[in-house]
Known about the structure:
Blueprint: E1 6-11, H1 16-27, E2 31-36, H2 39-48, E3 53-56, H3 62-75, E4 77-83, H4 104-129, E5 142-147, H5 151-154, H6 160-180, E6 185-192, H7 204-211, H8 224-236, E7 244-247
Parallel strand pairs: 1-2, 1-4, 2-3, 4-5, 5-6, 6-7
Helix pairs in contact: 1-8, 3-4, 4-6
Amino acid sequence: MLIQGSSALVVGGTGGLGEATVRRLHAAGARVVVADVADDKGKALEGELDGVRYVRTDAADEESVRAAVDEAAGAGVFRICVDCHGGPAGGGRLVGKDGTPLPLDAFRTTVEHYLTAVFNVMRLAAATMARTEPYGEDEGRGVVVTTSSIAAYEGQIGQLPYAAAKGGVAAMTLVAARDLAPAGIRVVSVAPGTVLTPAYGKAADQLSAYWGPQVPHPRRMGRPEEFAALVQHLCENDYLNGEVVRLDGALRFPPK
């Protein structure tokens, strides 16, 4: 698939992973719509990068996502949807040391943001993408890239809601790819390990010192630009489909 001239929607496009992806796809020639709730950052990207548009978007809300998808469809031939949005991640042990069970609302909120919202974006983006004209000899129409986590496989103590949500994202990948195969739409997911993003602020050095030595090679945390580079390849390689790709330097999370 050619990124040049295609329209792309990046949900969570003002975050560390998202902004790097926006910049990468823009540099590759896509018309990019940034969907997020950080208005200042979104408008700054819109002002800096020619052809980039910002749409305030709640990934868990149907009408909000539909409006962002419509914006992307209006910007050009809608071929690419990348979802790397964040949100609150409730945590804690299933049963605390004092015998208190993990609150149900904390679990529900995390799953709503990190799984249900991903499903919401995927279904609405794919429905619009399916109406585009196919390209190439394989008659593809586009790709949906989601973001899982290595916590889906080695969730740490206290990460149960987050691990469940990201595990759900991983599990949806193959099924969604099979569902959308008749429409020529691929579905792939990235499962990052520890990625150092600007969101960590002053804690970045401490996190890097803690996690860096635990990564087999290279012995450092990941970079948002590496996530974005992988997203570009997933878009361009039409034979990558139904797969969850770990991006972790061979890191495997310990229990805690």
